[in-house]
Design goal:
Elements lengths: L18 H11 L19 H10 L6 H14 L12 H17 L2 H16 L12 H4 L14 H12 L5 H19 L12 H24 L3 H22 L17 H17 L6 H15 L24 H9 L4 H14 L9 H8 L16 E4 L4 E5 L7 E6 L15 E5 L2 E4 L37 E2 L2 E2 L7 E7 L5 E6 L14 E12 L4 E11 L10 E7 L4 E3 L2 E6 L2 E10 L2 E7 L18 E8 L5 E10 L6 E7 L2 E8 L2 E8 L7 E5 L3 E5 L7 E9 L2 E8 L4 E2 L3 E5 L5 E3 L45 H11 L9
Parallel strand pairs: 21-23
Antiparallel strand pairs: 1-2, 2-3, 3-4, 4-5, 6-7, 8-9, 9-10, 10-11, 11-18, 12-17, 13-14, 14-15, 15-18, 16-17, 19-20, 20-21, 22-25, 23-27, 24-25, 24-26, 27-28
Helix pairs in contact: 1-16, 2-4, 3-4, 3-5, 3-15, 4-5, 4-7, 5-7, 7-8, 7-9, 8-9, 8-16, 9-10, 9-11, 10-16, 11-13, 12-14, 13-14, 13-15
Length: about 800
C-alpha cells in the first residue's frame, strides 16, 4: 500500500436522512473501491522487521525489555494457572499475550505462538477465567468490551485487535471468523451514540476506543470489504476522518482539553491514555495517514511531564487519584509511549534522556509491551538541558500553569489551576493552588478520589442561591459545557493571563465566574469572580500573592454569602494575629492577610471519601490541616501573602499604601525588592506612586491593551508612574517592568517558550511477516478464503456513520 495524503477533516452529514436516502447512501458506499483501507501482509501495525532485529539483538541481555518479554511468556507457558484468571478487565491476559507476541517475533517458536493464541482467544471469548466463554454474551449480548461502560475496550478491544494482526497467519479460518464476529460486535458497541465518552478527547475511555478502533480498522477492514463490500472502507474512513480528523483534532485545538500535554482527569489516568494516543497515531502514520498535530502534541506531553515534576521529581496529580500522598511517582509509561510513538527524533531522544535520569523501575506487567516497543526505536538518549527551559509552562487545555523559581532541587514550585469541567475525574477547583519548596510540600491538595467539592482543595468558592442544595457551597460543573453546548468563550472559566518574565516573576489570573453557572443560568448574586496569583522569587524561597476579588450584584443583599477560602497543609497551622504558619521538613509556609478583612479558623481534615451532599465534602485522601478564611461582602476582597522559606529564614517585609481603590504593596523579598500595584474593585491603574528604590514592578490592573507605555518621573525619593495603552509599550497584562533609582524603566520581557520540533517524515510502510512457522491456514491478508460475516454489517456501520456521532459529555 502506498501512502496517500488525506485532509484532516472531511465534510460529513450530521443530520438525519430519510430511509430512502439512507438506502441509496448504503448502496453507493458498497460500491467503493476496497483499496482505500490498508491491505497486504500482516502484521501491519506497530511492527517492523527492524524492530524485530533490534529485539533479537537485545534478547541476550536479561535486563532488556525483549529478554523480559520472552521470560514473561515462558512463565505463562510454565505456570498457566497463574494466568487463568484475567484479573481486572483482562489485564493479566493482556500481559501474557503482549509478552508472547514479542517473544514470538524474537524466537518464532511454536510454543510462543501457541501461548499467544491462547491469550488472544481468552480476550475474544472469556470474561473472568480462561474457557468460561462468557465474553460474547456479556451485557445481554453487547459484548465484553462494554464491561464497566466500555473500560474493557482498552484491554479486550485493543489487544485482541493487535493479537489478530500479529498472529493473523497463524490463525485458522475458524479463529479468524470468530475474531471478525467479535470485532463487529465491539464496533457496534462503540457506534452506539450513548456509549460512554467514546468521542471525548482527554477521557481515558476515549483513548481505549481510539486505539482499539484504529487497530481493528488497520488489521481487519480489508477482510470486512471482502465479506461485505464497502463495510471495511466505511469503518476505516470513519476512524480516519471522524475519530482522528474531527474528534482528536478538536482535542488539541483551542479550548480542547489536550493542548499543552496535560491530562484533566489526573495523572493516575493519564499515562495509559497518553501512551494509547501515541501508539494509535503511530499506527496511522505507518499507513501513510497525515496527523501533523500528533507529534506536536506528544512533544508537549514531554514538556508538561518535565514542568509537572516537583523539585525532587514527584508528579503533580491534577485530578483523581487513590494515592494517599500529595504527589505521584513519575510514570515510565508516558515516556515509553512518547519514545515508541510518531515523534521527532529530538523529542524521542529527550524522552529517553529523562527516562534515564529518573532511573524509573522497569515494567513488570502489561506496560512491558510499551517498554519493548520503545526499546526497538532507534536513537540514543539526550539529557534535557534544563538551563534552556523556561521556569513557567502553561498547559492551556487543562488550564494548569506550572511555575518555579529555578530548575534545581531546592527551588520553590507551584501550580495554578483554572478550567471548567470537561471530563470526569476533574475536580471543581478553578483557582486551586499548590506550593512545594525543594522536597517540602507546603500547600497541598488532598482532594479525595471522586471529589465534586471545592472544599477539598485550595480553590475559592461562594455559596450560590440558585444551586441545588447538594451542590452548595462549592463551585459548579458548568464553566465549560452545559449539555452538549460549549459555553461562549467570554463566559467560560479560564485563565485571562499566565506569564513568566525574564526576572522570574510568574502571574496568573483565573476568571472563575463560569463556575457559578448552574446549567445555563449565571449567578444572580455576582457577575465577576477573579483570583490573581503572583509568585515573586527570592534568594532561598518565594512570596506568592493570592488576590481574591468578587464583584456582586444588587441581588447579593438578599443572599450575602461570604467568599470562602482555604489553605491546606500537611501539618497543623499555628495562628498568631493575622498570620498562620506551618512547617514541613526544612521549610516554613507563612500565610498573611495583607489587605482586606476575614475571619479564620483552623481544623484538621478528616481522612475519608466524600459522601452525602457533594458540595459540602471537606475530606482528604491523606491527613492535613486546613486554614479557613471567610471574607464578607458586600464586595469581597482580600490579599494573602504566602511566604515559602527555610525554617530559619525571614519572611518578606510588606508595606502597603492606599489611594481610593488603589493599593500599592512594597515587598522586600530577601535581596529582591518588588512593587505590586492593584485595585480592590478591578478598575484600571492609570498612575501610582512608589519609592524610588530600584525594584521590579507588577501592575495587575494596567490599562486595557496588549502593550502599555510606562513613564516614570522622580520627585524627591518617590517615583510617579503613568501608564497608557501604546502599541510600542511593554507587554501586558500583567504589566511587569524594572525601575531604577531615577525612575527609568525597562521591560521585564516574557521568558521565551521552548519550541517543538517539526513533525518527522512518515515512517516506511510495514511489509508484514513474522519469524517462525505460520498457522494451519495462511491467508496472507488478501481475504481470498474468508467466510461470510453476519449479513447486514455494512448497513449498520454505514448507517450509523451517516447519521453522525452524538458526542456525550455527561458525568459518569
Amino acid at each position: 500500500m502506498q501512502p496517500r495524503p488525506r485532509p484532516l477533516t472531511r465534510p460529513r452529514p450530521h443530520t438525519l436522512v430519510s430511509a430512502t436516502g439512507l438506502a441509496l447512501a448504503i448502496s453507493f458506499m458498497t460500491t467503493l473501491d476496497a483499496s482505500a483501507q490498508p491491505t497486504g501482509p500482516h502484521p501491519r501495525a506497530l511492527w517492523s522487521a527492524e524492530a524485530v532485529a533490534t529485539w533479537q539483538a537485545q534478547a541476550n541481555d536479561p535486563t532488556s525489555a525483549a529478554a523480559r518479554s520472552v521470560a514473561r511468556c515462558d512463565d505463562a507457558i510454565a505456570r498457566p494457572s497463574d494466568y487463568a484468571d484475567g484479573q481486572y478487565q483482562g489485564f493479566r491476559w493482556v500481559e501474557a499475550l503482549s509478552a508472547c507476541l514479542v517473544a514470538r517475533a524474537i524466537t518464532g517458536s511454536d510454543a510462543h505462538t501457541d501461548a499467544a493464541k491462547l491469550y488472544l482467544n481468552a480476550l475474544l471469548d472469556d470474561l473472568g477465567t480462561i474457557g468460561d466463554g462468557e465474553g460474547p454474551g456479556y451485557n445481554d449480548g453487547v459484548g465484553i468490551v462494554s464491561q464497566d461502560t466500555g473500560y474493557s475496550m482498552r484491554t479486550h478491544g485493543v489487544f485482541a485487535a493487535l493479537g489478530y494482526d500479529w498472529l493473523h497467519d497463524a490463525l485458522s479460518n475458524a479463529e479468524r471468523q470468530k475474531a471478525r464476529t467479535r470485532f463487529a460486535q465491539w464496533v457496534a458497541f462503540h457506534q452506539q451514540p450513548t456509549t460512554y465518552q467514546r468521542a471525548q478527547p482527554g477521557a481515558n475511555y476515549h483513548a481505549g476506543h481510539l486505539l482499539a478502533l484504529t487497530l481493528i480498522a488497520i488489521g481487519h477492514a480489508d477482510e470486512m470489504n471482502a465479506a461485505d463490500a464497502g463495510s471495511g472502507t466505511a469503518l476505516y474512513d470513519y476512524v480516519v476522518d471522524e475519530m482522528w480528523g474531527e474528534v482528536m483534532a478538536e482535542g488539541v485545538a483551542p479550548r480542547g482539553p489536550l493542548g499543552g500535554g496535560d491530562w484533566l482527569e489526573g495523572w493516575q489516568y493519564g499515562p495509559l491514555s497518553v501512551a494509547s494516543y501515541a501508539l494509535a497515531a503511530r499506527a496511522m502514520a505507518e499507513q501513510g495517514e497525515s496527523l501533523p498535530f500528533m507529534p506536536t502534541y506528544l512533544a508537549e506531553v514531554l514538556q508538561r511531564y518535565v514542568h509537572g515534576l516537583t523539585p525532587d521529581d514527584r508528579w503533580f496529580v491534577g485530578g483523581d487519584t487513590g494515592e494517599d500522598t500529595p504527589y505521584l511517582a513519575p510514570s515510565a509509561l508516558v515516556l515509553n509511549g512518547i519514545i515508541a510513538g510518531f515523534v521527532a527524533d529530538e523529542v524521542r531522544a529527550e524522552a529517553r534522556g529523562e527516562l534515564a535520569r529518573l532511573d524509573l523501575p522497569a515494567a513488570r506487567d502489561f506496560m512491558l509491551f510499551y517498554e519493548a516497543l520503545a526499546s526497538a526505536q532507534p536513537g540514543s538518549p539526550t539529557p534535557i538541558d534544563r538551563s534552556t527551559l523556561p521556569t513557567g509552562y502553561l498547559a492551556p487545555g487543562a488550564g494548569n500553569y506550572y511555575a518555579r523559581t529555578a530548575h534545581d532541587a531546592s527551588a520553590t514550585w507551584m501550580v495554578s489551576q483554572c478550567r471548567g469541567s470537561i471530563v470526569d475525574h476533574q475536580h471543581q477547583n478553578a483557582g486551586n493552588l499548590v506550593i512545594t519548596r525543594g522536597a517540602d510540600d507546603l500547600l497541598v491538595d488532598p482532594g479525595p478520589y471522586g471529589s465534586l467539592s471545592t472544599l477539598t482543595g485550595n480553590a475559592p468558592t461562594m455559596s450560590q442561591p440558585h444551586f441545588n442544595d447538594n451542590y452548595r457551597p462549592s463551585q459548579g460543573a458548568f464553566g465549560e459545557w452545559w449539555g452538549g453546548d460549549q459555553v461562549p468563550a467570554e463566559e467560560a472559566t479560564r485563565l485571562l493571563f499566565a506569564r513568566s518574565t525574564a526576572s522570574g516573576v510568574h502571574a496568573t489570573r483565573c476568571d472563575y465566574t463560569g463556575q457559578f453557572r448552574f446549567r445555563d443560568v449565571p449567578s444572580p448574586i455576582l457577575d465577576a469572580s477573579v483570583r490573581d496569583i503572583v509568585m515573586l522569587p527570592g534568594d532561598a524561597g518565594a512570596t506568592t500573592l493570592v488576590v481574591d476579588r468578587i464583584h456582586t450584584t444588587a441581588a447579593y443583599a438578599a443572599d450575602p454569602n461570604p467568599l470562602l477560602l482555604r489553605f491546606r497543609a500537611l501539618n497543623t497551622w499555628s495562628e498568631n494575629g493575622g498570620t498562620a504558619t506551618t512547617t514541613e521538613g526544612s521549610s516554613t509556609l507563612r500565610v498573611r492577610r495583607v489587605l482586606g478583612d476575614g475571619t479564620t479558623a483552623v481544623e484538621s481534615v478528616p481522612v475519608e471519601s466524600c459522601s452525602g451532599d457533594r458540595g459540602a465534602c471537606r475530606a482528604g485522601r491523606f491527613a492535613s490541616s486546613e486554614l479557613r478564611v471567610s471574607v464578607a461582602g458586600p464586595q469581597p476582597f482580600v490579599v494573602h501573602a504566602l511566604d515559602a522559606d527555610p525554617t530559619e529564614g525571614t519572611p518578606a517585609a510588606i508595606d502597603t499604601t492606599s489611594d481610593g481603590a488603589l493599593r500599592v504593596l512594597q515587598i522586600a523579598r530577601d535581596t529582591r525588592p518588588y512593587v505590586v500595584a492593584l485595585t480592590t474593585d478591578g478598575a484600571v491603574v492609570p498612575t501610582y506612586v512608589a519609592p524610588s528604590t530600584p525594584s521590579t514592578h507588577v501592575v495587575l490592573n494596567p490599562p486595557v491593551g496588549a502593550r502599555v507605555r510606562v513613564v516614570g518621573s522622580l520627585a524627591g525619593d518617590t517615583c510617579t508612574f503613568t501608564l497608557t495603552p501604546d502599541a510600542e509599550g511593554f507587554a501586558s497584562p500583567p504589566l511587569v517592568f524594572a525601575a531604577d533609582g531615577d525612575c527609568a524603566v525597562t521591560e521585564d520581557s516574557d521568558q521565551p517558550p521552548r519550541g517543538t520540533p517539526p513533525p518527522p517524515p512518515p515512517p516506511p510502510l510495514t511489509d508484514g511477516g513474522v519469524g517462525g512457522p505460520g498457522g494451519d491456514d495462511h491467508g496472507g491478508g488478501c481475504g481470498c478464503a474468508i467466510a461470510s460475516r453476519h449479513p447486514g454489517d455494512a448497513a449498520w456501520l454505514v448507517a450509523l456513520t451517516l447519521l453522525g456521532a452524538t458526542r456525550r459529555r455527561g458525568r459518569k
